[in-house]
Amino acid sequence: MEEVQTVNRSVKPTHMKSYHVQYGGGLEGINVKQHSIPTAGKHEVLIRIHANSLSYRDINILDGNYPLPIKPDVIAVSDGAGEVVAIGDSVTHTKPGDRVAVQMFPLWLDGPFAWEYAPQIGGSLDGMLTEFAVVHEDAIVLIPDHLSYEEAATLPCAALTAWNSLTGGKPLQAGQTVLTLGSGSVSLFAMQFAKLFGARVIATTSSDAKAKRLKELGADDVINYRENPEWHKLVRELTNGHGVDQVVEVAGSTIEQSILSCAVGGQVNFIGRMGGESKPINLTTLFMTAAHVRPIAVGNRSQFIAMNKAIAVNKLHPVIDKVFHFDEAREAFSYLLAGGYFGKIVISHSAPHKVQ
Fold it and tell me: Strands 344-348 and 31-36, how do they pair?
């Protein structure tokens, strides 16, 4: 039996609850189950989860539309933050009492993505929508001191994806221009990070009410894409014909307009497919703009650590739309599926009505 170090307020319960989902099973496939609390192995840590957040990835899993493997009856959700309560005897990166978040791709520590890093939390590996979780010590990062657990739980998927977009290819420079699409979580984080870098942000959205909120968060210009379906033309006008240096493309179906919005040699960060089927890209358009289309697979542990440092130094706070209690997790999934939210949907394991 391996020696495990614990804090004085060591784990007293012997059982925990977790939420399981079935790939393609929809809301009806979400089930609560009880388990014995796991034990941390030699290089592992036991975390008491305090908060989770939901991502569009969770919709894809419920809909059976996710490209990576999902194991049957997987514990749901990639995003979680909590407190280390026990460690294995060979753990060196952390100690009991540390406040941590969990890396979605626990094997991806640094460098570009490769298929050997494909095992993912809440997919081929059990996720974070549980009261206690055991992960390898390399899978965790310390969270900024100024953030609550609810805020920190928003970082592993959406925030890291946005950070990787702006820093992992052509690093964003002060004075450059970024185009963000819509008011989803990745786009909101990208806007916040772009402003930290001293960049100009042009955002698109579907309503005047959301446009007002985007302006309040720092967007320099906002385009209503319902009123301006060929919004790339307005992007060109707003940049005096130059185009933008980076686009955070979250829809997929709008990728050609994103390319048309780019400056020569600009970068389109292709996040995923949130907007239905995409049309074939006109190769002449791609060639003439010399745009770089860069698919994004969240980010690695080194990027997570760098992002958290920037968040801490700038005292950045994530945008949270609504907080549900752990016992209301199904309602949180329903809220996610309904759409129309502005910011992250969070599940707290403490106060049902905690505000950010």
Answer: unpaired
Q: What is the pLDDT of residue 253?
A: 81
Phi-psi region of 315 (alpha: psi -120 to 50; beta: other; left: phi over 0): left
For 60-175, where are the E strands, in sequence order? 74-75, 79-88, 99-102, 132-136, 140-142
Q: Would you state the structure tokens that stand for residue 140, as one six-digit string? A: 């965790």
Give the separation between CA 129 and CA 326, rounded to whole angstroms.
8
CATH of the domain at 291: 3.40.50.720
Contact between 165 and 246 (Cβ < 8 Å): yes
Q: Distance between CA atoms of 269 and 164, rounded to whole angstroms?
A: 9
Per-residue pLDDT reduced to its tens digit, 19-48: 999 999 999 999 999 999 999 999 999 999
Same domain? For 150 and 170 the reply is no
Task: Note whether 106 and 40 are same-domain residues.
Answer: yes
How is residue 326 written in tokens?
A: 């752990």
Count CB-CB contacts under 10 A for residue 227: 11
- Same domain as 137, residue 68: yes
C-alpha closest to that of 245 among 265, 223, 222: 265
pTM (2 d.p.): 0.91
| Crossing angle (nearest 10°) for helices 160-167 and 185-196 | 50
Task: Tell me the residue range of the domain where 15 lies.
Answer: 4-154+318-348
The answer to the question of residue 303 being in a domain is: no
| Strand, helix or coil for residue 274 | coil
Indicate the pLDDT class of residue 276, thresholds 50, 70 and 90: low
* Phi (first) and psi of residue 80, to 5 degrees: -155, 150
CA atoms lying within 13 Å on the CB side of residue 10: 8
Q: Are residues 89 and 194 in the same domain?
A: no
Same domain, 138 and 210: no
Question: Hey, what's the torsion of the CAs at 217, 218, 221, 227, to 10 degrees?
Answer: -10
Find all residues with CB under 8 Å of 39, minimum gap 6, and list them: 4, 46, 86, 134
Say if residue 8 is in the same domain as residue 149. Answer: yes
Residues 28 and 122 occupy one common structural domain: yes
CA distances from 325 to 75, 99, 126, 330 (A): 17, 20, 20, 10
- Measure the CA–CA gap between 179 and 202, rounded to whole angstroms: 5
Query: Interhelix angle for 185-196 vs 301-314, to 10°?
Result: 60
